[in-house]
Amino acid sequence: MFRTLAMLRSLQSAHHTLEDARTTIQQACDYRWLKDELPHGVITATDITLPDGTPGLAITLAYPATPERRRGGRWPDEPAERERCRVEGAHACRAAGAPAYRTLEGLSQGLVHGAVSVLTEAARFRFLLDRQALRLTWRRVEGLEPTLARRLGRRLAHGKTNGGGDGIFLLEIKVPGRAEEASLDGAWLDRRVDRYRRIRPAPAGR
Predict the structure, then answer these.
(1) Is the dihedral of CA 13, 112, 196, 51 positive or negative?
(2) Which residues contact 62 (CB under 8 A, 6 or more apart)?
(3) pLDDT given at position 59
């Protein structure tokens, strides 16, 4: 707790309010969550272009659309309507299950793995947000393309409750780089994001 308070104070300045500091820590925690999840993903596209023109690839993670996860958003009851919806940015991570640290106690838990790199990891997460690189959609398990279903494997089994009624959430992450360089782990994501952060800095005002 004391470490969290110290971190919040260190992040505060004339231009950063307490809420700004909380947001920065939350973004760092979201990025760490994303890195931990990445090894469970599969590459689903290798020739995409990010909104700023950066070439990249798409990685997809699957999560059972449990009632708890579906309560995190306003998902329509009708499956056909639900499949047309999507959630983007930090909200996509939250809907997939990333924890939200709304209290000082929660923020302290989010920093348990080390607070030294919080500014760097928050900046990495903002890079992904600025490039509209995170998107979550809902799909019926039986409606997935067979090749994708096989590659996603065991996680889909949990989405078949009630004949697929719960369905599956698919979190797509667009990462700058080429497929032949991909290793789908946190260190690789750091390298990809850091390289393109230097090549293409954040838009003015960020």
Answers:
(1) negative
(2) 40, 152, 155, 156, 159, 168, 169, 170, 171
(3) 95
Measured CA distances, 204 to 130, 200, 201 (Å): 11, 11, 9
- How many other C-beta atoms lie within 10 A of the C-beta of residue 192? 21
Domain ranges of the chain: 2-199
For 97-110, letters b (16+ CB in 10 Å) and e give bbeebeeeebbbeb
Tokens of 169: 């959430």
Residue carrying the six token digits 């290793």: 183
Residues 6+ apart with CB under 8 A from 206: 126, 130
Q: 134-167: per-residue pLDDT in tens?
A: 999 999 988 888 888 888 876 666 555 444 458 8
Question: pTM for the full model?
Answer: 0.82
Bridge partner residues of 174 (DSSP): 58
CA angle at 109 for the pair 93 and 111, rounded to the nearest 5°: 80
C-alpha distances (whole Å) from 155 to each of 69, 84, 141, 182 are 15, 22, 10, 22
Q: To the nearest 5 percent, what fractions of the chain are helix, strand and coil?
A: 50, 20, 30
Instruction: Give the distance from CA 37 to its chain's centroid.
Output: 9
Beta bridge mates, 158? none
Which residue type, as a one-letter code, is found at position 88? E
